């Protein structure tokens, strides 16, 4: 698990650790890690041109001390001080002693091999002010690699919100712990590759992170375990209520995602024309024209993709919500939930909602652009308001549960932004719910595998939703299975 903490936790941990160490120790640890990364990126330090953008806080101090280390190894280091009177005194002295120079001429950026962004870190507030913004823009237009210190300046470290001009880094060297703003968009896409430097904060951080990102090993551990006794019913039955005469394809894609999830059996409740189409593509589906409540027993439902928003669809949703098993509501189901059910999921079993930004905005009565700009806040808010686990789709998918846990998905590609991929995701997560994964795990594991399948399918070229289904087995294989290969569940004869 990659854990990220809100700035207030980082500051508290820093204070507790600093109280046990000689003054300046943490900054030296940070600067050493930063300089090591810069040296590696430069592929040799001697004679290279490094420009430091230095704000008046400790973020600037880190940049100055790292600059001094590079200057001692023969780099030509120029520092541009945003506020010369308030720049970190110790860092300035170290840089001067190492032969670094102060300059007021931003043209040095144009000739630099590497620019170190030490304008603001966890102390930054809002978008960059004009002087800082000009330097950030000049660095973006130059050939140099841009390395952000701790956080790209202009990105809110706790939330990933970017409220104006901000640095776009190739690499961010962050200290002590990840910050949510490095994992959640739009901040994440300003951070580039994120490298963590351990400065010893770990023992002083709370057990529960503000935001966590699953890694392959976590996914492998969370996937259901198969054994010799496994059969289709024990694996779980997932019910799908999707498709309509107008949108039959949505059911094909949702069922496809569900078949390649962890359930052993997929049941579809849909109109005849939808069933015919689904059976052509997926003959293994068990189909029923009956209402969901009469379609047979399931361990989880997926309801919504392409089902329409008329009264028949409303009644189908009502029946599914009245069941005592986990339910995933997507697409038209979300529209119906807002229109007829007060946007709430008051149920005894878990509910998962999978809106994109537009659907999330509608359920909250907010603007889509605000949801996209402040993804973490809105995902949490919808989870609190609905009592459901909410997965907000789009660039950096987020999952929040009503108890406050948040996961951010590290896989995925913008190539997934194509019609129908959301239907595949719904089927996949529903299948994981039917297999018994708790809502937060099902949603975050589903998003992880879906994002990975999207990447494997796209490989830098356009894809269609069915390509994502086709690559789900490869995505499963690539995370492995912590419970050992399935074929070993039966002894060889
Ligand atoms: N935590 C740790 O364990 C460790 C932390 N360490 C390091 O300390 C960093 C935190 O340092 P920090 O607290 O001094 O704040 P910092 O990020 O330098 O920003 C404050 C400055 O930014 C300015 N400023 C603000 N907003 C602005 C804007 N929009 N546009 C322009 N300027 C703006 C603000 O100006 P002012 O408002 O005062 O005029 C002030 O000058 C942390 O990120 C890490 O790098 C490591 O050394 C060791 C371990
Ligand atoms: N820019 C992006 N980066 C990464 N993933 C994206 C991006 N845009 C869309 N996606 C993903 O593509 C899928 C689209 O789902 P959705 O909007 O519901 O489409 P549809 O309703 O057509 O199935 C989601 O999994 C979403 O996270
Ligand atoms: K910075």
Describe the structure.
By secondary structure, the chain is of the alpha/beta class. It folds into two domains: 2-211, 3-Layer(aba) Sandwich (Rossmann fold), CATH 3.40.50; 216-488, Ribokinase (UDP-N-acetylmuramoyl-L-alanine:D-glutamate ligase), CATH 3.40.1190. The protein is built from 20 helices and 18 strands. Helix 12 links the parallel strand 13 and strand 14 (327-329). The chain binds ligand NPW, adenosine-5'-diphosphate and potassium ion (K). It comes from Carbonactinospora thermoautotrophica. Its EC number is 4.2.1.136, 5.1.99.6.
Question: Ions, cofactors, ligands: which are bound?
Answer: ligand NPW, adenosine-5'-diphosphate, potassium ion
Structural class: alpha/beta
Q: At the third CATH level, what is the topology name of the largest domain? A: UDP-N-acetylmuramoyl-L-alanine:D-glutamate ligase
Provide the helix percentage: 40-55%
Assembly state: single chain
CATH architecture of the largest domain: 3-Layer(aba) Sandwich
Largest sheet: 9 strands, mixed
Q: What's the average pLDDT?
A: 95
* Sheet with most strands: strand arrangement: 12-11-10-13-14-15-16-17-18
**Separation, N- and C-terminal Cα atoms:** 39 Å
- Anisotropy-based shape: elongated
Overall structural domain count: 2
| % residues in beta strands | 15-25%
Number of helices: 20
């Amino acid at each position: 698990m990659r854990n990220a903490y809100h700035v207030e936790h980082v500051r508290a941990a820093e204070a507790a650790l600093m109280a046990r160490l000689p003054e300046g120790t943490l900054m030296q640890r940070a600067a050493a890690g930063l300089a090591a990364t810069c040296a590696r990126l430069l592929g040799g330090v001697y004679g290279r041109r490094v420009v430091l953008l230095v704000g008046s806080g400790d973020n600037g101090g880190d940049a100055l001390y790292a600059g001094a280390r590079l200057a001692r190894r023969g780099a030509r280091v120029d520092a541009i001080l945003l506020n010369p009177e308030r720049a970190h005194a110790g860092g300035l002295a170290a840089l001067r002693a190492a032969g670094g120079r102060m300059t007021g001429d931003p043209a040095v950026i144009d000739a630099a091999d590497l620019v170190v962004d030490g304008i603001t870190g966890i102390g930054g507030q809002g978008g960059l002010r004009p002087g800082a913004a000009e330097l950030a823009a000049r660095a973006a237009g130059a050939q140099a690699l841009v390395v952000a210190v701790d956080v790209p300046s202009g990105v809110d470290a706790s939330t990933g919100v970017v409220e104006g001009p901000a640095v776009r880094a190739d690499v961010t060297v962050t200290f002590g712990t990840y910050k949510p703003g490095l994992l959640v968009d739009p901040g994440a896409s300003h951070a580039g590759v994120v490298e963590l430097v351990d400065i010893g904060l770990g023992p002083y951080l709370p057990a529960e992170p503000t935001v966590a990102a699953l890694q392959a090993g976590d996914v492998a551990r969370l996937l259901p375990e198969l054994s010799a006794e496994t059969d289709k019913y024990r694996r779980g039955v997932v019910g799908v209520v999707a498709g309509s005469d107008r949108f039959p394809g949505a059911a094909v894609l949702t069922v496809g995602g569900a078949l390649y999830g962890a359930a052993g059996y997929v049941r579809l409740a849909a109109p005849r024309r939808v069933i015919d189409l689904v059976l052509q593509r997926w003959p293994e589906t068990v189909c029923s024209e009956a209402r969901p409540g009469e379609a047979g027993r399931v361990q989880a439902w997926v309801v919504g993709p392409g089902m329409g928003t008329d009264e028949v669809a409303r009644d189908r949703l009502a029946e599914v919500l009245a069941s005592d098993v986990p339910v995933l509501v997507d697409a038209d189901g979300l529209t119906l939930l807002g229109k007829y059910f007060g946007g709430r999921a008051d149920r005894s079993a878990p509910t998962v909602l999978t809106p994109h930004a537009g659907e999330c905005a509608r359920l909250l009565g907010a603007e889509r652009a605000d949801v996209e700009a402040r993804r973490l806040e809105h995902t949490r808010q919808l989870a609190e308001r609905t009592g459901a686990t909410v997965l907000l789709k789009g660039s950096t998918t987020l999952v929040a549960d009503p108890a406050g846990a948040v996961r951010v998905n590290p896989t995925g590609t913008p190539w997934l932004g194509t019609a129908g991929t959301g239907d595949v995701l719904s089927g996949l997560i529903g299948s994981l719910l039917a297999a018994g994964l708790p809502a937060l795990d099902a949603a975050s594991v589903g998003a992880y595998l879906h994002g990975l399948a999207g990447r494997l399918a796209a490989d830098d070229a356009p894809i269609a939703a069915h390509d994502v289904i086709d690559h789900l087995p490869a995505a499963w294989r690539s995370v492995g299975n912590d419970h050992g290969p399935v074929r070993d569940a039966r002894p060889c004869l």
